Amino acid sequence: MGFIEEIKRRRTFAIISHPDAGKTTLTEKLLLFGGAIHVAGAVKSNKIKKTATSDFMEIEKQRGISVATSVMGFEYDGYKVNILDTPGHQDFAEDTFRTLTAVDSVIIVVDAAKGVESQTRKLMEVCRMRNTPVMVFINKLDRPSKDPFDLLDEVEEELNIKVRPLSWPIGNGPQFKGVYNIYNKGLYLFTPNQQVLDEGINFSDVNSPAIEEYISKDAADVLREEVELVEGVYPEFKVQDYLDAKLAPVFFGSALNNFGVRELLECFLQIAPTPLPSQTESRLVNPDEPKFSGFVFKIHANMDPNHRNRLAFVKVCSGKFERNTNYLHVRLGKNMKFSSPTAFMAQKKSIVDEAYPGDIIGIPDSGNFKIGDSLTSGEKMQFKGLPSFSPELFRYIENADPMKSKQLSKGIDQLMDEGVAQLFVSQFNGRKIIGTVGALQFEVIQYRLLHEYGASCRYDAINLYKACWLKTDNMEELQDFKKRKSQYMAKDKSGRDVFLADSSYMLQMAQNNFKNIEFHFTSEF
Ligand code: G4P
What are the φ/ψ torsions at residue 524 (nearest 5 degrees)? Predict the structure, then answer.
């Protein structure tokens, strides 16, 4: 197969949801379609979680939440599908954000009884920032659900995007009969716990009397009425609106019962974007450029605690990646070749000789990579879109075991390279400050420092509001600012100046008094 065909057949996406809406279950079912896994019977997701790839960190098993982000690839009908899993817990929002920089589209799972929940709203904001096309899967129709029209209104309002149903549920809960596929005009009947895949029954039209052979006349009448309403209320579906991130196609189903999943997958494969161009600081990189380029969006540490090795997840942006070929590590200005890059197929990792745009490869790493690093065939360019955000919570981190100070600082450095949290060094007292999105990360850091590096740490309270990265052309004013605010100045991991404001009032005063300085809550502006 040619290079361009290889790119065109790739679909790289993430499934996002509020915890418990059914992301893990849907992922598993998609893998099932791809023949990537074989699970018989309706599987409980807690059972799935024990075996799913998204579960390779001990800490995650302990806490039962998806701390790690993993990649699952499979082949289906000539397509190469790459699903990037994201941690559902909100304290790991930054990890999820970085994963979203590596995908070309997103499927959002919504619980049909609960509707749009907080975490989904936040994640959707990230999709909007990046103009990522989204599709919505409304899940758990086998349980008593909200009215489908109300759900659509809610999605439209809460996620602030126009919607267009492409399938329609027939009843819900104990009365759930099935789904009418508006996109291809097929009727799919629901049998609880069915794992055999239904071919569906095709009708030229929802008004076909033949439908009544399969569902009662009453149910058919309601369906006809509702589909007519859908066609009247919602504009005709245009794929381009979806690709432009202006409209979200919506599907209904039940992931647990494997119902409505194939309709979602097949439509997704047909219309979801192929690998898109990526922005660097100097230019836009097109996937079909012959020379390889890619960036690290995630680092996964110590899957085997006996080995300090890490795995850097690289998204291939252009060209063909080849094993044992020299590539430029742009930040280090160093040529490197990789003898054992891995691809992620279902729940397995295996060494690959080549990878194409849209693919994710894992590169075993002993400490050369940081999140955001670029790899190229020689061009010195830096991919954009992986900024640090101001943390929400801050604490001083101190050594609790004087015999292990070396281990502690190595551990902290490596955890920061992985993007677990952010480190700032106060320019006033030289103390290290850890900034996180959620409280859980402090526990994760403490746990991992102890178990992976043998180092103990202790936290001291510090009252801070935001970290601000500074930008100005007026060096004199900057020097003056740094002198006057020396107590609040720190350096980030890359040595950039950061102002740690202790309240919104203080920040406002600083903005008023130093008009030539811009204060940014992200490191990329
Ligand atoms: P998540 O990754 O988004 O957190 O959700 P996950 O797939 O783990 O699903 C959460 C729970 O919802 C699981 O229940 C799962 O079986 C159930 N679930 C998923 N899809 C459906 C569906 O279509 N219908 C119904 N009825 N349930 C569904 P669980 O593992 O038994 O845990 P819990 O119920 O004790 O939380």
Answer: -120, 120
